[in-house]
Amino acid sequence: ERPARRYRDGPVCKRPGCVWDAYERLQEIGTGTFGKAYLCRHRLSLEDRAVKAVKKVRTRVSEKDTMREAAMLQRLDHPHVVRLFGWHEDAARLYLVMEVLQGGTLQGALVDLQKRTLAQREEWSRKVMRQVIEAMSYCHSLRVIHKDLKDENVMLLHRDTHFQNPFAVIIDLGAAETSSMHAMGGQQQTQVAGTPATMAPEVWNDHVGPKSDVWSAG
Q1: 64 is known to lie in a ligand binding site
Q2: CATH H-level superfamily of 104-217
Q3: Which of 99, 141, 202, 204 could join 83 via S-S bond, C-beta 3.0 to 4.6 A?
Q4: Out of 148, 160, 172, 213, which one is annotated catalytic?
């Protein structure tokens, strides 16, 4: 396997031209209400990327959320936060060019983890949780609140078949918000968003802050 480079070597911005002139589609790797995601290869550098193609015509909300996600990821550059390398746009779709995460979701990994010994489960979970907390701390230092942390929104960079060296990466910042400096010590008024089962109690009252992410992660 030939993983993509982990670090960005240029500005993150809207790219000119058609995305498929720059990237070759290798296979479809995901689909949903947003559209589809593809494993792609850059035609010049031969680096693999994930291209998330979001339909504009489905709902105005999905387009708005996608541009919010791009704006957030444009600011962030951390090993445990999914990296955006740029985006393209045409009349029908927005295309986010992101790093490839080949290990599946944390949710899926936790199912297989139950077959391991208690000691192995605890050690592996501790490593993953530390990485998620490091990513959260970094985002909060830039006043970014994820608002939808859950096991489905944490992916693994590679398949950790023997459950020894996990590399967790936070994804899906479509609901994220930027908090004011005043609110970072507490809560700020916000729009209700997230997953009901993992939302902090205060989010239901239209308030959010760093502690909301801590609740969701725990």
Answers
A1: no
A2: Transferase(Phosphotransferase) domain 1 (1.10.510.10)
A3: 99
A4: 148
